[in-house]
Amino acid sequence: MTPNDAELAVPPPLRAKRLRLHTQHQAVVIMRADCHVCRSEGLASRSQVLVSSNGREMQATLFQIEGDDLLAIDQIALTETAWKILSLDEDAAVTVTHAPTLESLASVRRRIHGNRLDARAIGSIVKDVAARRYTDVHLAAFLTASAALPLDEQETVDLTGAMVEVGERLRWDSPIVVDKHCIGGLPGNRTTPIVVAIVAAHGLVIPKTSSRAITSPAGTADAMETLAPVDLDIATLRRVVDAEGGCIAWGGAMHLSPADDIFVRIERELDVDTEGQLIASVLSKKIAAGSTHVVIDIPVGPTAKVRSEATARHLADRISAVASRFGLSATCILTDGSQPVGRGIGPALEALDVLAVLRGAPDSPDDLRRRSATLAGAALEIGGKVASGEGTTAALATLADGRAWKKFQAICEAQGGMRTPPKAPHVHPLIAPRAGRIVHINNRKLSRLAKLAGAPEAKSAGVYMHVTLGQEIDKGNIMLDIYAESSGELAYALEYARRSPDIIEVEISS
Amino acid sequence: MTPNDAELAVPPPLRAKRLRLHTQHQAVVIMRADCHVCRSEGLASRSQVLVSSNGREMQATLFQIEGDDLLAIDQIALTETAWKILSLDEDAAVTVTHAPTLESLASVRRRIHGNRLDARAIGSIVKDVAARRYTDVHLAAFLTASAALPLDEQETVDLTGAMVEVGERLRWDSPIVVDKHCIGGLPGNRTTPIVVAIVAAHGLVIPKTSSRAITSPAGTADAMETLAPVDLDIATLRRVVDAEGGCIAWGGAMHLSPADDIFVRIERELDVDTEGQLIASVLSKKIAAGSTHVVIDIPVGPTAKVRSEATARHLADRISAVASRFGLSATCILTDGSQPVGRGIGPALEALDVLAVLRGAPDSPDDLRRRSATLAGAALEIGGKVASGEGTTAALATLADGRAWKKFQAICEAQGGMRTPPKAPHVHPLIAPRAGRIVHINNRKLSRLAKLAGAPEAKSAGVYMHVTLGQEIDKGNIMLDIYAESSGELAYALEYARRSPDIIEVEISS
């Protein structure tokens, strides 16, 4: 005896309620524990569910709620990620079922047990990750497995390709498209706007998109935004590049490597660096951005991301090898990662350093100028504009004679108009506790200090350095200034500085 | 110049709001994105925060909300886990700061990179896990690392010891305390109540605590609860054991291995079995329960947890080795895991099987009777009550002459009174699609079917088997009955059965 149609209960739809709750990449839905769908589908808190509405669907984590304070029995609350992806309106009809089994998890398990994965397996994992079907547990398991048994070159190539596959791609009308990347971990290292200005001034195409800060006090997009609009749509971006040869825009809306955005958050929470993941992260974005030649800055130092020169060279070799498999030419430059570059740490403060270098101001930070010239010079060489070995000289000249500054102003105008970076109303110095020499500068703690002061949300907030490594100072000298937009944030930063005496270490000179 | 005290802003307390939101072990708090604490502490969604109230503190994941629908700007909503652990009242003052850095994560990272951990490192990890400081990402990373590089014997011993350390411990006045465990994955395998009755009838002390179902259609505690109260506090449990020598109670309130409760949920989500974790999970509970001699049932079969006899023997050896390091004597019995044991799957249906075996009913499931006798017999032997090799015979006799039934009734009375298991109002058969032989029974799918029918929440719901592996049947014969408390749940189970033809496979006899 088969049940009639009335008994084959398709769960009646629920009514969507917007909660305005932010849970980052993880989509969460909330339903009443006594909701009929929970009973019929056998759902419990932390179940993975498939949420469908109006032809769209996505996976989410379910949390159950008791009582009727928040929801009527036929309502479902969705967090912002879910609300936007499903393009919901209030009271929209939503269907919820068990999420289908994730077949690709079998591949994750295989890798956990020591088996290397082929392109098909990696591709299916990355597809599921980009579609937000992986929970934090699944993501962490995959990333941990990739660290415990490090990805080999073929797996890194396959991962890079899979990450490109699931994102958007930009294409340009030029045979040479230059790009730049910094491996990171160095506050204030805002070379990109200067590099783009120099490179574009020489007629190379450099359509640079950058990210906002995730855990640092400023991303390139944050600093640039204090100088010009960065939130460009693709049509505007193309117009700017057509007119000026280059741009410095925010890449977040381009979705060039959506799986990477998800991986990166988990990697930060784990604080585990897996070389294969790092390479795939960097290169997938560059390939998706349509670049042909990329310069990669690898700062090396005890509190930078890469701790030794040997590690850096090994990384550089691997990056070049994987890049060449995609027809991408990658040049890695090892730079000094033992202290911040420039003086400002924070969006507006870094922008001021950039302006000073471009304008050739007499007190502009020389280290920022030289590093930008080194990286721009490498770009000029691999872009075929100058002979090998002459890049840095040519870049310095482009700064000195004002061509870079002129090009930068033109780019800002094309992006929507040049702005003056804001100035913070509250400032407080950190002074040297004793006379001596600066023997150590802790980049991580400087970043934390700048963030407590309010960066990057408070654009004028951050830290302005007055000393460099190796410098001799007297007791009472100002080592740095803390800038904040509110007295409360200033107080938090000062409290942190008070209990962290080793942000800048001063050793008594013998 | 140092800031004055007024500037050293300790964040003003927030007011607690109960949400009645269930997020399982993960504590979640919700705060307004524009709340002053979020700004001053630099908190973002998914930040880990330390939540303090009235002398208690715990770690939680923060989600931020916009607008004032749910919360006033100085309110903080907490999910049930957090609410209970902090013993909050509505409007209680709550302080929120950044969670401190987890030092033990450095050990997790060391293990990810292939280094084995010592007792101190493992201990610090387990301590943090039990204190709920580990996010899903951290938990998954540790468990994955323990699978990628399997825990060796010393690490397994250290993990077991650490898990015992963070929980409660029970102590008994007897030199011999018997325990039993089933590795699992086999529906209906409800031997525990029968084993306890037999063993206690012989005068051995067997204070059995069991769990409720986590992902199965019934745990021992669920089935037993349809026969007698199981929710005993420790004082009552001791009284029962003093009076009758044994009990069959719910162990959930005893907190014998709190880290294990957390690990288990992540392991299920990953579906990765790590032998070391399994051993530590089983033995930590037994040691904490104060047991001296434990019988472990290891069902072996293609859809059970342990798939081959070789794997089972290896596991058995490792269990015994680790157990002996704690002065615990563990005897592993390999049993058939190719099909369910007994006929009922679901709390009340399994209880009926138990009653039938204890009463010696003529149609009682013979496989359940024999398996219970085997396990009880092993317990009688290691408990020194019968000679080696005579255990099963003695156990069968104890069933046949009614001593076990008498003891079971006494235990139920001591626990609060014997009950009659409920009977479900809706029942529907699954019939054989063709004549032939039963060649495969999928335990996992049977469990899912029983759960869709409502087990274990609906105590009388589940599945009742009418066939066994190898049996010859005719087309139209009833293979099993589905029991449900509501027509909706019955419909869901039938829909699942309709689209899953391979729950029970019938092969045409040649």
UniProtKB/TrEMBL annotation, chains A, B:
Pfam families: Glycos_trans_3N, Glycos_transf_3. It catalyses: thymidine + phosphate = 2-deoxy-alpha-D-ribose 1-phosphate + thymine. It is an enzyme of class 2 (transferase). It comes from the Bacteria. Residues 437-504 form the Pyrimidine nucleoside phosphorylase C-terminal domain. Its EC number is 2.4.2.4. It comes from Aquibium oceanicum. GO terms for molecular function: 1,4-alpha-oligoglucan phosphorylase activity; thymidine phosphorylase activity. GO terms for cellular component: cytosol. Keywords: Glycosyltransferase, Transferase. This is Putative thymidine phosphorylase. GO terms for biological process: pyrimidine nucleobase metabolic process; pyrimidine nucleoside metabolic process.
